[in-house]
């Protein structure tokens, strides 16, 4: 069985076919028979686990397992403690309330790679970084959560899934690992 960690760059579709104007996983990963366990939006970056093990894929991506996923999110404006608390207790979205998230304001992550293209910068509006641990994974959930508290996400990077992180993986790089048991 094969399990891979991949650092998905910005503007890459999290599937192996149908790219059109966008790159796909096939442009980076030559391994056949593996599929992403969960997805990242085209405009999000970071850790994607690919595997040919259906049980592992379910364990990573199915909400009933509540496997923690940690994200670094650059948001517009500086969230107050009250804003962060709204994320911690759960936010009401159009598809229902979210589960509570673990959230903290952080400094810009060290050794962060440049994004191409860079985020839009507005001279009079500061930005901040938050670390968020989610235990579910709805479509564009984190972007919708930060928008709901008035701090839209400008850059979103999934740094960790369970015990796996992006340590040692540059954008577009992948490596094979031993799967969880």
Characterize the structure shown.
With 181 residues, the chain is α+β, with helices and mostly antiparallel strands. The chain folds into two domains: 84 residues, Pseudouridine synthase I, catalytic domain, N-terminal subdomain (Alpha-Beta Plaits), CATH 3.30.70; 94 residues, Alpha-Beta Plaits (2-Layer Sandwich). The protein has three helices and 13 strands; from the N terminus they run E-E-E-E-E-H-E-H-E-E-E-E-H-E-E-E. Strands 1, 4, 5, 6, 9, 10, 11, 12 and 13 form a nine-stranded mixed sheet that branches. The chain has a two-stranded parallel ribbon with strand order 2-3. Strands 7-8 form a two-stranded antiparallel ribbon. A hairpin with an 8-residue loop joins strand 4 and strand 5.
